[in-house]
Amino acid sequence: MLQTKRLTLSPCRPSDRADFIALERDPEVMRFLNGGAVDHATTDPKDVTFLMPRGTEPYVWTARRTADGQFVGWFCLSREGEATAEIGYRLRRSEWGQGLASEGASALVDWGFKVASYDRILACTMAVNHGSRRVMEKIGMTHARTVPFNAAPVPGSEHGEVWYELTRSKWSGNQPS
Asked: pTM of this prediction?
């Protein structure tokens, strides 16, 4: 379990499934992934290009407010190679703009470097997703490249997908002594 000032992140469980699905039903939350909400009656999580956690994924952490246990969203840190991981996050719209994405992502990055011993952590989003890009920059990541967006056509996809990265050496240089 990871604790921040306002959040508790814990490995996801099957009991989180309903919260995850409710999050995916919000068209604004899903806008930069598929242009809107997921149709759960016809969509299999294995058939999409983005993560649809169901509570059994070992790299997904459920985020709840520490004060009252209220579901905030989820964060993930999935291994992408021997020493590389990719971070992702999805928060309820009512939680946007409060710094919670940066707070949770920062805690998971710290865990990734200190505990999981990653050398590099990556993140990606659509170029037009300015909110997610701000989160990546706030946690110390820097823009590495922009590539064509190859998923379903989403407004703004013509601007591509941006990849950010943070290395262990840059992260450790930013840690308080």
From this structure: 0.87
